[in-house]
């Protein structure tokens, strides 16, 4: 009898067909809406594999319900939506999709950095709103990118890919990482700085680290107060890294100059969220990895991990604690 995989969101046909060659596939078909919790809890009971997205909370309750589950395959590099400890305890393998989204996410991070520095969305909105008067010298002025200092917090794959983009703009790159990476300093020509030092010296601060409860609100009132007045904060990692209330006040009062946010503590971010009222913030709906090619690669990798594990092989990209 074929083993069964449950997919928590409609995936492209190519992926479903690939899985269906070997497995019985069940899928939540409703476009744009995460599977309701009670359905997930029911579906997980008897399946052998689960393909989920970052919008699905795979916590201890879900894991406990699963009687035959061998693998949880997350279609994302971040896996803070999964209780990996509980899964591992039960012998369930957890996989993610690192590598395939590195360059695309670094592209978007740099896009946000540039858009926030030059106030692209506010200027565009002004034009469309009929507020473009005669060209004037100091109107719509932003911050320079070329030659500025970039501070990267979290030097993983995507952080490194960001360095390469920054080098094209002659930026001076500082980084902070839990473990100092001497080899990368030599290879990439970047400088290590403690987080406080990095916050004080950077014109742009990019958060490139995974979220976990230990780094909840890593950037709060105190950290923002250390940043330069011309500084711009970029977050394409996870919303929980930033205290949004503190960020709002820092942006509103001019304590920092701007922000570029692709992620929020609550997603979708409510349209009446106070951060969306500010013109010095560029906001995006969590699209860091959203190129056609990359999203297909992520889906294929997630499917390949499922097929391999249910076939008794080792997964390609296992999450290990
Ligand atoms: C991830 O993979 O964790 C991103 O947030 C979505 O691509």
TrEMBL record:
One of its GO terms (cellular component) is cytosol. The keyword Oxidoreductase applies. One of its GO terms (molecular function) is hydroxypyruvate reductase [NAD(P)H] activity. This is D-glycerate dehydrogenase. Keywords: Oxidoreductase. The keyword DNA-binding does not apply. It comes from the Bacteria. Residues 111-288 form the D-isomer specific 2-hydroxyacid dehydrogenase NAD-binding domain. Signal peptide: none annotated. Residues 5-319 form the D-isomer specific 2-hydroxyacid dehydrogenase catalytic domain. SUPFAM superfamilies: Formate/glycerate dehydrogenase catalytic domain-like, NAD(P)-binding Rossmann-fold domains. Gene3D superfamilies: NAD(P)-binding Rossmann-like Domain. Belongs to the D-isomer specific 2-hydroxyacid dehydrogenase family.
């Amino acid at each position: 009898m074929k083993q069964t995989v449950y997919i928590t969101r409609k995936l492209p046909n190519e992926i479903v067909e690939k899985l269906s060659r070997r497995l019985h596939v069940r899928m939540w078909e409703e476009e744009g809406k995460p599977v309701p919790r009670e359905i997930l809890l029911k579906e997980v009971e008897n399946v052998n594999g689960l393909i989920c997205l970052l919008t699905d909370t795979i916590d201890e309750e879900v894991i406990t319900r699963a009687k035959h589950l061998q693998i949880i395959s997350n279609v994302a590099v971040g896996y803070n939506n999964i209780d990996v400890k509980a899964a591992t305890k039960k012998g369930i393998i957890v996989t993610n999709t690192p590598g395939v989204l590195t360059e695309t996410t670094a592209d978007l991070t740099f896009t946000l950095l540039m858009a926030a520095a030059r106030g692209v969305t506010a200027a565009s909105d002004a034009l469309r709103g009929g507020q473009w008067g005669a060209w004037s010298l100091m109107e719509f002025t932003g911050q320079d990118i070329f030659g500025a200092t970039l501070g990267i917090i979290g030097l993983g794959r995507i952080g490194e890919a960001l360095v390469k983009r920054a080098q094209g703009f002659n930026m001076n790159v500082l980084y902070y990482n839990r473990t100092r990476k001497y080899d990368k300093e030599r290879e990439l020509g970047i400088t290590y700085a403690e987080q406080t030092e990095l916050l004080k010296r950077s014109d742009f601060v990019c958060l490139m680290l995974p979220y976990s409860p230990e780094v909840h609100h890593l950037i709060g009132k105190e950290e923002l107060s250390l940043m330069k007045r011309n500084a711009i904060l970029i977050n394409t990692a996870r919303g929980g890294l930033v205290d949004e209330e503190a960020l709002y006040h820092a942006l509103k009062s001019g304590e920092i100059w701007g922000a570029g946010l692709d992620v929020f503590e609550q997603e979708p971010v409510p349209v009446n969220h106070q951060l969306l009222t500010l013109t010095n913030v560029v906001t995006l709906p969590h699209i860091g990895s959203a190129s056609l090619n990359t999203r297909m690669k992520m889906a294929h990798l997630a499917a390949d991990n499922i097929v391999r594990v249910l076939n008794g092989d080792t997964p390609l990209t296992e999450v290990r604690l």
